[in-house]
Design a protein that fits this description.
The complex is a heterodimer.
Chain A: H1 8-32, H2 38-56, H3 65-80, H4 83-100
Chain B: H1 3-47, H2 52-61, H3 65-74, H4 81-92, H5 94-102, H6 111-117, H7 123-138, H8 147-175, H9 186-198, H10 202-221, H11 226-241
Classes of the chains: A mainly alpha, B mainly alpha.
C-alpha cells in the first residue's frame, strides 16, 4: 500500500473528520435558529469578540519578549491604521524583533 | 426575455460583480495570512509521509486549519481514526458558537442555502462576514447578510488553503521555518484589526478582557486548544452575570 496515494483507512479518517467538522458548523445554527430569547440577542452581540480575542490570546503568552512587544505594536497600529498597514507592522515587527531580541521571558 | 426584466437582470449582475470585487479586496490581507499557515501544514504533512492526495482531500473535505494541524500531528501509516475524529470535534467546537452568532444576520436567508454555505465557514470567513453584516445593518440595509460577499471570501480562502498546503508539501522543506520571519503574526494581526472594528466602548469590552485573561491562562496551563473554549465561555458567563442594562450603548 505504500506506493498508492491513499488507502481506505486514511480516506475514511479524512471523511469522518470532514463530517464532524461540518456538523459543528451547522449545529449551532440549526438548534437555535428559531429561538428568540432576549438574553440570547445580548449574548450574540458580545460573544463574537470573546471568541476572536480568545483565538489570538496565545500570541501574548508565547514566553518570548519579542512576540509580546510585536503584539502590543500590532494593537497600537490597529487603533489608527488600516488592515494592510497593521499586517505589515505585525509581520515586520515580529520578524525583526525575533531576530534581534531572542530573549525568553520564562 | 422582456426588456425590463433584462435590465433588472443586468442590474443584479452588476450588483453581484460589485459585491464580489468588494469582498475580494477585504479578503486580501487574510489571504496573505493563510499562506504561511498553509505552507506550514504542507511541510508537516511531508514530514509525516502523507501523500499529496491525502493532504488535498483533508484540506478540501475538512477545511478547518486547526484540526488539520492536530490530525497531521497524530498521523501514521494507519491513522488512529477515533482519536483524530475526537480531536477534530474538540478543536472545532468553536464553530458551534460561530454558527449561533450568524443567526441574527441571516434570518431572512433560506435555510437550505445557509446549510450549504456553512460548509465553507471558517474563523476568518466568519469574522469578515460578521463585520460586513454589522456595517450593513448600521447603514440601514434590510438584509444584513450579503451572499455574494460571503461566497467570494469563502471560496477564495478555500482555494488559497489548498494551493498553499500543496506548495508546502512540495517546497516547504526547502524554505525552513517561516515563523522566523514573523509570518505567523498575520493571523493575530488580522483578528486585532477586526476586534478594533467591533469595539463598542469599555462596558462591552469587559467580557472580552475576561476572555483574554482566561484564554491566556488556560493556554499556559493546559495543552491543546482548550483556551478558545475556556475564553469564550468566560466571556459568555460575564455577559450572563451582569444585568442587561450594563451593556446598553448610546447610538447617539
Amino acid at each position: 500500500m505504500h506506493d498508492s496515494l491513499i488507502n481506505h483507512h486514511a480516506f475514511l479518517t479524512i471523511l469522518c473528520m470532514g463530517l464532524v467538522t461540518y456538523l459543528t458548523r451547522i449545529s449551532g445554527y440549526l438548534l437555535l435558529r428559531n429561538k428568540n430569547y432576549p438574553r440570547l440577542i445580548r449574548v450574540l452581540e458580545i460573544l463574537p469578540g470573546c471568541v476572536m480575542i480568545s483565538l489570538v490570546a496565545p500570541i501574548f503568552v508565547t514566553g518570548k519578549l519579542s512576540d509580546f512587544i510585536a503584539a502590543i505594536l500590532t494593537i497600537l497600529t490597529a487603533m489608527r491604521f488600516s488592515f494592510l498597514v497593521t499586517l505589515i507592522v505585525g509581520i515586520g515587527s515580529a520578524g525583526i524583533l525575533r531576530h534581534f531580541l531572542p530573549m525568553v521571558l520564562h | 426575455m422582456s426588456p425590463p426584466s433584462s435590465v433588472a437582470h443586468q442590474k443584479l449582475k452588476h450588483h453581484v460583480h460589485h459585491e464580489c470585487l468588494r469582498a475580494f479586496k477585504t479578503a486580501i490581507p487574510l489571504i496573505i495570512s493563510f499562506i504561511p499557515f498553509g505552507m506550514m501544514l504542507g511541510a508537516q504533512a511531508k514530514i509525516k509521509d502523507m501523500s499529496w492526495l491525502e493532504l488535498v482531500l483533508m484540506c478540501g473535505i475538512n477545511f478547518a486549519g486547526g484540526s488539520e494541524f492536530v490530525a497531521i500531528g497524530l498521523w501514521q501509516q494507519t491513522p488512529p481514526l477515533l482519536l483524530i475524529v475526537c480531536m477534530t470535534l474538540l478543536v472545532n467546537c468553536r464553530h458551534i458558537l460561530m454558527g449561533v452568532t450568524m443567526i441574527p444576520i441571516c434570518r431572512r436567508q433560506p435555510v437550505r442555502k445557509m446549510l450549504l454555505s456553512f460548509f465553507l465557514l471558517c474563523d476568518e470567513t466568519w469574522a469578515l462576514s460578521l463585520q460586513d453584516s454589522y456595517r450593513r445593518m448600521e447603514e440601514g440595509y434590510r438584509e444584513p447578510f450579503s451572499y455574494p460577499h460571503y461566497i467570494t471570501i469563502a471560496v477564495s480562502f478555500y482555494i488559497t488553503w489548498i494551493i498553499t498546503a500543496l506548495l508546502g508539501i512540495i517546497i516547504g522543506p526547502m524554505l525552513g521555518d517561516l515563523t522566523q520571519y514573523g509570518f505567523d503574526m498575520a493571523f493575530p494581526a488580522v483578528f486585532i484589526v477586526l476586534l478594533r472594528g467591533m469595539w463598542n466602548g469599555w462596558r462591552r469590552g469587559i467580557p472580552w478582557i475576561g476572555s483574554l485573561f482566561v484564554a491566556c491562562a488556560v493556554h499556559l496551563l493546559i495543552p491543546g486548544q482548550w483556551y478558545v473554549i475556556a475564553g469564550a465561555i468566560t466571556g459568555l458567563l460575564i455577559v450572563l452575570c451582569l444585568p442587561p442594562s450594563f451593556f446598553e450603548v448610546d447610538h447617539a
